[in-house]
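User: My advisor asked me to double-check a structure prediction for Enoyl-CoA hydratase before group meeting. I don't want to rely on an old file, so could you generate it fresh from this sequence?
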Amino acid sequence: MTGMADELVHYDVVGGTATITLDSPHNRNALSAQLRRELSDSLAEAAADDAVRVIVLTHTGPVFCAGMDLKEARGAGAGDQGVNEFPRILEQLWTSPKPVVARLAGPARAGGIGMVAACDIAVAVPEATFAFSEVRIGVVPAIISLTVLPRLNPRAAHELFLTGDTFDARRAVEIGLLNSATADLDAEVARFVKSLAAGGPKALAATKALLSRPRPATPSDGFEEMLALSAKFFAGEEGQEGILAFAQKRKPNWVPQD
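Assistant: Sure, here is a fresh prediction for Enoyl-CoA hydratase from the sequence you gave:
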């Protein structure tokens, strides 16, 4: 166990929002073994806590995340590389039943971008920069491709994966990596958190799963399964509460109190 002063990841829950903060500025929040372990534990805790409605992934220091810790990678064999543990973190972000918002007050590189892409919503300051720098050091952006490529415009993905060139937040919005770039970062994150918390918890989890599933070849191929899912939620406890709240012109019982 590490003490509070030794933590590289902080976990805090206020008003239904779990804030997970990367706090390893000495190495630009690189994905060291300790940071990976603590981040995974925090994500698991947030997913299991019924009081948590939304997760915010943020950071201290000028950099969101520089990617894998290259000092730890140096000299290690393929089976001992820290990157072997990284898929679990991306999977936790991608499949979390609670919506995840990435808050970037600075740059992200390589694996850091993989985490941004795995989040449901991503917001950055205009000064934030990004780069798939893997090819520049002779490695491949293999693992992060699984979360990044579903987000990115294909032409942009080819260009940026192959060149390793740096791009800014404005372009990150244009190609689908970010939802927005704004100087008023906290207000934008708060806006998204409030909107996400207005959704039913079970409906949000099911909708996240829906967004990640393979698309049927034609709408007709999916109607039967989707009808069953829709009818289940219309008739379910959460759906009935939402319908009643709409009729009574009040907020549903899952919406956090202001």
